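Input for the complex:
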Amino acid sequence: MQGESVLPKVLAGDATRVATPPMDSDAFTGFYERSARPLWAYLARVSGDRTLADDLMQESYVRFLCAAWAETHNGEGEVAARRYLFRIATNLLRDHWRRPRQASIEELPEEFFAASANSSQADSQAELSPALALMRPRERQLLWLAHAEGYSHREIAEITGLASASIRILLFRARRKIASLLREQAARPGRKS
Amino acid sequence: MILNRCAHEAEVAQWLARGGWPAACPAELRAHVSACRSCGDLVLVTESFQRARTDAASAAQISTPSALWWRAQLRRRYAAVERIGKPLLGAHIFALLISLLVGLGLLAAHAQQCLAWLVGLKQLPQAGAVYFENIWSSALLDPIWSPMVLIPAVATLALLGGAVVYLAMDKQ
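Predicted:
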């Protein structure tokens, strides 16, 4: 770009900032190795699409590294970094769901997700997949964050952008719903419990 | 909606989070969970999701972090260059606007002469070649074409042309 020759000093200063990222390569490698599998599990289970999970996981990490948050919150530790990573992934999922039909995440029919969830039923999670496919995407997110990742209501609120009081009600309702589905499924003949 | 939360739920959640459920927890709590709908739901759902998490995490085929690292560095650099480019674009637009204003000002200042020249052009077919020669000679002698006017006009055109070419090259 011609601007580089016009403002060499400004660019040089910026290049210095770019060359010293908030998390160095080794630190990122460690963080990635510890967080990538849980993040992929979250994306794959909530979206029901492994290929989409691969794409969104990569995009989540790139955005995480590019984000200004990493510069200002670098000292908050890995727990906060991981929470922020899940927040990015949650936003990407929401954007993905909104894109094809231009509809709200709450308005999308359950069948839309149930159809794509069939691809992931080949693994050992046959017990959870059918029930999860009948849940709304928001419910899947909340249930996964609370029961698989063990986040508190406040942390889930931070990740999803919902109010903490809403999380409590939505989670209670979702938990009751999926528990009923799991019990029904276990009671059905020919199904393993 | 009424939340029928059980008082033991937090305790059960702690046992589940620690991984001590059901072996390490007290027998009374196990008995309570088998009778309580809310705690039963909690145990059933948490155990299912924890198993799903373990299996999904082990099934994940994650790529190497170095590719992501460099991709992020490239994106950061592009973003930085774009940030710097924004004020430059503003300067380009400002220069273009100033040039246009100067050009329009010049045109407005000599509008009468321009109109006379246009009228002359309209009458050109009727007047014939002799009349054209008269206009040409009078135009050359007219003070409008004096160097004081001609030089700023050419300079404005050059500036305008330069700005347009620069913008076009920048976009490419």
